[in-house]
Amino acid sequence: MFEGKYDVVVVGGGHAGAEAAAAAANMGSKTLLVTMNLQTIGQMSCNPAMGGIAKGQIVREIDALGGYSGIVSDESAIQFKMLNRSKGPAMWSPRVQSDRMLFAQKWRTMLEQTPNLDFYQDMINDILVEGGRITGVVTSLGIPIKAKSVVLTNGTFLNGLIHIGEKNFGGGRAGEKASHGLTDSLEQMGFESGRMKTGTPPRVDGRSLNFDLMEEQPGDEQPGTFSYTQTIPLKQQRSCHITYTTPEVHDLLREGFDRSPMFNGSIQSTGPRYCPSIEDKINRFADKSRHQIFVEPEGWETVEVYVNGFSTSLPEDIQYSALRSVKGFEKVKFFRPGYAIEYDYFPPTQLKSSLETKLIDGLFFAGQINGTTGYEEAASQGLMAGINAHLKINEKEPFVLKRNEAYIGVLIDDLITKGTEEPYRMFTSRAEYRTLLRQDNADLRLTPISFKLGLAGTERMKAVEKKELQTESTINFFKTQSYLPAQINPILMQRGSAPVKQSDKLSKILARPKLRREDL
Questions:
Q1: Nearest CA among 393, 406, 390 for reference residue 449
Q2: What are the two backbone dihedrals, phi and then psi, of residue 490, each rounded to the nearest 5 degrees?
Q3: Residues 193, 183: contact at Cβ < 8 Å?
Q4: pLDDT over 90 at 25, yes or no
Q5: 66 with 23: CB under 8 angstroms?
Q6: CA distance linking residue 271 with residue 189, whole number of Å
Q7: 69: how many CB neighbours lie within 10 A of its CB?
Q8: Spatial distance between the Cα atoms of 143 and 124, rounded to a whole number of angstroms
Q9: 89 Cβ contact partners less than 8 Å away, ≥ 6 residues apart
C-alpha cells in the first residue's frame, strides 16, 4: 500500500505535527503525516488565539526559522494586539485573535502546497524498532509504514478521558475518539509515562449576550503581523470584551463541588497551574470577590463565543446557572459545555536536546506528549523535531538552540534538564536572556541559522540583510544628528517629558522612555 520507505513519518496533525511535517518536507525529506482525522489538521482545541506574553515571541521565532505558524496566524486573524507596550521592548508580545475555522483551513492549504509531503488518515498504535532504531509505525488497521525517522505529536489523545461533572468518557477532544495502544507499546520498550490534565470552557451563542454590559477590548489602531514575510495587516478587526464573576457566581459554582471531578477524586492528574479552572480559582483564591472573563469571538462568520477564564469540568447545570449570573450573560445560550481531559504524556527528561528519545534512535517526541501546554509551545517543538528528524537521517549534527538564542531554546532546555510534573507554559521570566530575545529581532537572530540549514529560503535571507543595513543606517542617523531645544521641546511636552535647555544628539533624547523613534 505504501511504496518504499518514508524518510520521516509524523504522527498527529495538531500544531506540533503540522510544523514537524512542514519542516522535514521543506528540507527535502520524503514525509508522511498520519492523523486520525484529516479534517482537523491545525485544529485549535482550546482558545481561538495565537501569541501573547512570551508565546508571541515563540511564534515570531517559528516564523524566522521558516515555520508556518506566523503566516497561518496572520492570514486567519480577526484582531491584533501588541501586549505589554507599557514595558520595555523586550517584553512586548504580539497576540492575535483567530478565526478558528479559517486557521485550520489555512494550515491544510499550506501543508497541501508543501512539496515532499503526503497524508494518510488512520490511528497509529504501535512503532517498529530493530536494533534500538526506529524502522516505522503500524496503523490501527495493521498496516506497517516504513520510516527512517518518526515524530510523535499525539497531543491529548493518548488514552484521553473527558470529564463533565460525574460523567466521563474516552476522547481526545470533544467529538473525537482517543488513541489507544501506543502508550502500552512505548512502555513495553522502557519508556516512563504519566498523566496530565487540561480543560476548556463552554462555547456560547454570542447573540444571547449583552455586550453593552461588558468592557470592550478593541485591537490595535495600527495592527501588526507575526510573519516577517509580506503578510498583510488587518484592515478590519473584531473586538473582544471583558466581564467578571461575582460572589453570587462563586456560590453557585460551589454548589457543584461535590459533583466536580476535580474535588471528588475522579481526576488524579495535574492540571496547568497558570490556566486553572474556574472552580480551582475560587477554591484556591477564596479571598477574591471576582475573576476576569475574556469574551472572545470565534471568527468572522460565526456567532460562537469562547468564554476565556471560565474553564470548567463542573456538571452542565452548574456551568449554566453560574454563567447566567455573570454580567452580560443573563440570557446566555450554550453551544456546548466546558470539560476537562486527562491524557498520557512522557516525562521529557527521556529526550536529548534534539527532541530525539534517548532509548530509540530516530524517534522524536514533540508537543503535549512532552508535558507542555499551549499551541505555540507545541508548534515550536514540532518545528525543531521535524528539522532534527531530517538531519538525523542525513547523518548531520542536530540543530539545538541555546538559551541565549531563543525562547525555543529555553523551552527545550527546561524540558530535557528539569522535566515537568505539570503542564509547562512559557513565560518571559523563564528566559534569563529575555532582553536579548525580543519579538522584533527573531529574524536577525534565527533566519541566518535556518538559511544555512536549508529551511529558511533566499527571500527571507535577503529581507534580513536589508533590515540589517536599514538598522545600521538608522542608528548612525540618530547618533550623528543633533536637535535644537526649540525643535524638540514641543514634542517632549506633548509626550509628558521634561523640556531640554541645550542641543544634543537625537540618540540621547530617544533614550527617554516616553519617546519613540516615530516621534522624532
A1: 406
A2: -60, -40
A3: yes
A4: yes
A5: yes
A6: 27
A7: 31
A8: 9
A9: 438, 440
Q: Retrieve residue 355's grid coordinates.
A: 527532541
Question: How far apart (Å, rounded) are the C-alpha atoms in residues 119 and 10?
Answer: 10
Model confidence pTM above 0.90: yes
Eight-class DSSP state of 271: -
Residue in the block written with cell 456560547: 204
As assigned by CATH, the class of the 203-339 domain is: mainly beta
How many angstroms separate the CA atoms of 251 and 88, rounded? 41
The 10 Å Cβ neighbour count of residue 116 is 17
**Closest C-alpha among 415, 411, 342, 413 to residue 376:** 411
pLDDT in tens, 231-241: 999 999 999 99
pLDDT confidence tier of residue 511, bands split at 50, 70 and 90: confident
Gyration radius (Cα) of the chain, Å: 24
In terms of Cβ atoms closer than 10 Å to its own Cβ (0-12, 13-18, 19+), residue 298 is buried
Q: How far is CA 268 from CA 41, 67, 195, in A?
A: 30, 36, 8
DSSP 432: T
Q: How confident is the model over 94-116, as pLDDT tens digits?
A: 999 999 999 999 999 999 999 99
Q: Which residue in 206, 295, 303, 305 sits closest to 242, CA to CA?
A: 295
Q: Residue 185 burial (CB < 10 Å; 0-12/13-18/19+)? A: middle
Classify burial at 308, counting beta carbons within 10 Å of its beta carbon; exposed 0-12, middle 13-18, buried 19 or more.
buried
Show the CA angle centred on residue 425, arms to residues 253 and 171, nearest 5°. Answer: 60
Looking at this protein, which amino acid is placed at residue 346?
F
Predicted pLDDT at 404: 98
Q: How would you class 450 by CB atoms within 10 Å of its CB: exposed for 0-12, middle for 13-18, buried for 19 or more?
A: buried
Question: Which single residue is written with the C-alpha cell 498583510?
Answer: 232
Burial of 258 (0-12, 13-18, 19+ CB in 10 A): exposed
d(CA 508, CA 422): 46
The residue whose grid cell reads 508565546 is 55
Q: What is the pLDDT of residues 46-97, one digit of tens each?
A: 999 999 999 999 999 999 999 999 999 999 999 999 999 988 889 999 999 9
Domain residue ranges in the chain: 203-339, 460-519
C-alpha to C-alpha distance for 293 and 241, rounded to whole angstroms: 8
Place of cell 524502522: 135
Sign of the CA dihedral running 108, 112, 117, 119: positive
Phi-psi group of 82: left, alpha or beta (phi > 0 → left; psi -120 to 50 → alpha; rest → beta): beta
